[in-house]
Amino acid sequence: FPLQAPASWQGGQVGMDLPAEVLLTVMLLGDSGVGKTCFLLQFKDGAFLSGTFIATVGIDFRVALPALTGAVSQQIWDTERFRSVTHAYYRDAQALLLLYDITSKMSFDNIRAWLTEIHEYAQKDVVIMLLGNKADVSSERAVRTEDGASLAREYGVPFMETSAKTGMNVELAFLAIAKELKQRAAQPLDEPRFQIHDYIESQKKKSSCCAFS
Ligand SMILES: Nc1nc2c(ncn2[C@@H]2O[C@H](COP(=O)(O)OP(=O)(O)OP(=O)(O)O)[C@@H](O)[C@H]2O)c(=O)[nH]1
To answer: What lines the ligand 1 site, CB under 6 Å?
Structure first.
């Protein structure tokens, strides 16, 4: 199966002449049904072009418009079913969005297993963000916000609740990792770093919105 996207897709070149300075690979992880596909689709409406479904491995490939992230383009991998195959992809990912469903305790309980797997297969400095999705369905909530936050603290990763339905915090998740990775690429390690936690905390209440068709 193809490990690399066709060259013509890379660097945000899909019908665009904007320069792509950095190519980021982001993977969405989490149990089946937590909303990974919807999460991507929600963001795609604002920023992404559809890529091609790589049928052989079931991985959905999308390329971002560089305009959104300031000439940072992203490859987004959405994968759930093909665990053994996707181990190979962990190595290439600079960022992982790890989703659970706030209405599913099991999807939350499985986050530890996902994190174990990530630590085994992903790059040591991968940016991980924990996302409690489906925050719009508070009537069926099975996981408290504090429990999400506390698990995230335990693993030292940023956390927020999102809704792929309303769009709440979806764009922020991508923007935060894009900013973090861009800063890392641009700055020597001993200079003050972009604080992804602070950025999310300052931004996350602001973004909620949108229609879901
Ligand atoms: N209310 C609500 N429903 C959502 C949200 N995100 C996804 N859903 C619904 O949850 C179901 C599963 O969403 P998917 O995006 O297919 O989940 P997935 O993680 O890609 O699932 P797999 O492809 O099986 O791994 C669908 O019925 C979605 O409409 C959300 O934020 N809020």
So the answer is: 32-38, 80, 133-134, 136-137, 163-165
Read off the pLDDT of residues 173-202 as tens digits, 9 standing for 90 and up. 877 776 777 667 666 656 566 677 788 888
DSSP state of 57: T
For residue 179, give Cα distances in angstroms to 36, 44, 54, 186, 204. Answer: 21, 18, 28, 10, 15
Query: In angstroms, what CA-CA distances link 137 with 29, 103, 128, 152, 165?
Result: 21, 7, 24, 21, 10
Residue nearest to atom 7 of ligand 1 (CA): 35
**Atom 30, ligand 1: which residue's CA is nearest?**
134
Calpha distance 122→56 (Å, rounded):
22
Nearest-angstrom CA–CA distance, 127 and 174: 11
Q: SS3 of 127, please?
A: strand
Predicted TM-score (pTM) above 0.90: no
SS3 at position 191:
coil
Contact between 133 and 173 (Cβ < 8 Å): no
Cα→Cα distances 200→49, 130, 146, 182, 195, Å: 25, 12, 16, 16, 9
ipTM: 0.98
